[in-house]
Amino acid sequence: MSMTSPIIETNESYLKKVEKVHKQNRIKSLLKGLLFLLPSIILFGVFVFYPLFRTIYLSFFLTDAKGATTVFVGWEHYVNMFTDPIFLKSIKNTFLFVIYTVPVTVIISLFLAVIANEKLKGIGFFRTIFSSTMGVSVAAASVFWLYLFNPTMGLLNEFLQMFELDPIGWLTDPKWALISVAVTTIWMNVGFTFLILLGGLQSIDSSLYESADIEGSSYFYKLRRITIPLLSPTLFFVITVSIINSFQTFGQIDILTQGGPANETNLIVYSIYREAFVNYQFGSASAQAVVLFIIILIMTAIQFKVGERRVHYQ
Amino acid sequence: MTLSLGKKITFYILLIISALLLAGPMLMAIVMSFMTNQDILSGSLPTALTFDNYIAAFEKFPLMKFLLNSFIVSTVIMLGQLILASLAAYAFVFMEFKGRDLLFFIFIGTMMVPFEASVIPNFHIIRDLNWIDTYPGLTVPFFATAFGTFLLRQNFKQIPKELREASLIEGIGDFKFFLTVVLPVAKSSLITLGAYGFLTSWNMYLWPLLATTNDSVRTVQIGLKQLQTQEQLNDWGMIMAGAVTVIIPTLILLFLGQKRLQKGLTEGAIK
């Protein structure tokens, strides 16, 4: 910044000028910074923050079929929701679904990551296969499993027949439908979870294993004492992401069961979709969306909180 | 760490069994897509291989159009995300201004709002903009990405600040520095984010289901759903041919970029 002036100034006015220039620079850099951020800020505003507040707002109203508010009903949607057996079932089954899918996905992916982390010939091929379901879309995965679950032609019932067991109505039997959707979901999610866990394993310092080898530690001792503790941040991340993903399940249900049988697989996002875009009850659908938002908010908050603590302890 | 022969064999057996189980549904679909319907219905092993299912899927169904739509939508979202995320990440790393940290916090906060929870007003916005059945309606809502901004910010941070100071002395402006220094240095993260953005956009389901009412811009995922529901004859060979066609582009992308994706996503996850 060259602002030498030939006039001898008093100390005070010089300071004032410096301050003014500083202020101008601050405003300039603020404007410039905002310019780089503006596209994102505008789109977040229009497609994230406004819809969020609008959803909360709508949840206190009745609406017409176009989504315009008609009558203010206060907390009525919330009160109705928590006394409505169908919604309560939807909440219960959503949590059940999370319990069915998350632990199994993480355990299978961890197992795959551990065996794919060995330095063996051709391991790259196996890594590619294990991560491949990440590239399979919900629609395609659901179509594959729709056939596998097919009551007459599906491979699963053919296997049962081979062992002379009774065929199962995988998607039509209320006892099995949620489990079948969970199996599909686990299969779909293993690819991504595996890839992240493998990355976590590879970032563990190999000298730790070497010194354990010198001490003659067994394979499972190393797994328990080195791998799992050092992998815990990654494991934690993967568990949170899986839980959030499970709460957002939609496509599988739309293709496999449409929420049936007897609302067994009517998980929360599908329930919102049906309430809003089939029944045109945007008010009560918004109230359900607020519940979903709060659940995800709590999950993410826990992730940040625990993640932060982890960093402090390092 | 060298393994004994016994251990090696154990690992290979585990690897092969796992690979077969995991790839099973996909292998089954690929085999079925080349089988005649007779073989499928009688439940026998394929007696003949044929391309008929693929020909039928493309002829009876606007599959080509759906593929093209998906390609356009995914590419546009990918480019939009790359541009917006890299601009934002640059501001967060190289520019200093009041409220920067607060803004970053707000960006990260958007990750807490699941799209599914705000889908109703989003649908109304798109409808009121007359963007139903248009490419902007399918793409623009996904341009701004907190995850992408975060990922690129991590990467931009590794560029030495001295580089920016030196360029300031030479009188190089922010935008020029961004284009000529930062973007080329961060090429590999940009590719990671691009691949990830393309992959997730290609596989999107709920939004294209809501934002399209006819075939004009309908994406291939919704096309596959239609193929499956409209096909009354239970022509599974054709349905599988459609499903396999849908996953080929993303599988190729994944096979090419698996290592990079793994590295990029893990960095985003752990750091």
From TrEMBL, chain B:
Keywords, alphabetical: Cell membrane, Membrane, Transmembrane, Transmembrane helix, Transport
Domain ABC transmembrane type-1, first and last residues per copy: 67-257
Protein location: Cell membrane
TM ranges: 12-35, 71-95, 102-126, 138-156, 177-199, 236-256
Keyword presence, Ribosomal protein: no
Membrane topology designation: Multi-pass membrane protein
Annotated SUPFAM superfamilies: MetI-like (SSF161098)
CDD domains the record matches: TM_PBP2
Database matches in InterPro entries: MetI-like, MetI-like_sf
Source organism, top-level taxon: Bacteria
Protein family (similarity comment): Belongs to the binding-protein-dependent transport system permease family.
Name assigned to this protein: Carbohydrate ABC transporter permease
Species this chain originates from: Pallidibacillus pasinlerensis
